[in-house]
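Before the break, one more example. Copy the sequence into your notebook; we will annotate it together after we see the structure.
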Amino acid sequence: MKILVTGAAGFIGSHTCERLKSLGHDVVGLDNFNDYYSLELKHLNEKALNAKGISIINHDLRADSLVDVLPKEVNYIFHFAAQPGISASSTFEDYFTNNIIATKNLIDYALTLSNLQLMVNIGTSSIYGLEATFPETVVPKPASYYGVTKLTAEQLVLQKSREKLFQSCSLRLYSVIGPRERPEKMYTKLIACAFTNTEFPLYEGSASHLRSFTYVGDIVDGIVSVIGNEPKVDGQIINLGTEVEHTTQEGIEAVEAVIGKSIQINHVSARIGDQLRTKANIDKARELLDYNPQTTLLEGVKAQVEWYKVNFT
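Here is what the structure looks like once it is written out:
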């Protein structure tokens, strides 16, 4: 199958590209290589993909010329590209254009494909709001520009299923960790602080926040399992993550245990819109996709520490 992956140079997108290639698919990536975070990391991911025969098209989804630069025939689209997370440096326009306009443009491109079997939107537990412990049927209450715009993007994609124009689904991911995690995310930052003897900025009150820290390999298991299950997942929203909860403090302690040293903590003001609790309700994923994440927090942290040591120490 010919598969297009947007946001291919990113964390989860790059892992998904590799898995799809290993399954025998013809994978083409797309990324705009913006400077929201380290271009060094994105090019490192690109190099790994190139070594496995996966090319990445450098193009911005917000441009109007997608049909001129993307393949004429694609069977699946996995849409990771987005303005991620909660950041004081990101404006509403950043979230609006990258998450809504870009998704609309990609949908318009998808409508030109004669053999598209499924468009998979990659959503987020942030859509639920400050607490994300619910089944997919609950009314979303996003509490950030990120959550609001990702909800809109999700609905734009699912609209095409309702209109019977093409099959689509949305996968809401929970607190993904592992090798290639973005540098501003918790575990990469913790590991960097441990190796560089610098302080980790801990948001006020966040030590007790609960998270479904899910290893990227387990997330990718769920993502690729939609292939071959198109009738089951068409029009569906599906949570992917672990049901096991850990506090931020337990996450800090896991990194300290793996590396064998204490991390200096700098307490900083709380972040507006930060989730208090995420616990993936994956009953639907189990039913439709036989989804069963197995990697423990400690195993995931060990893999991420090894990746960091190889590439940054």
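The domain at 186-209+245-279+298-312 is CATH 3.90.25.10 (UDP-galactose 4-epimerase; domain 1). The chain has two domains: 2-174+216-241+280-294, 186-209+245-279+298-312. Try to locate both features in your own notes.
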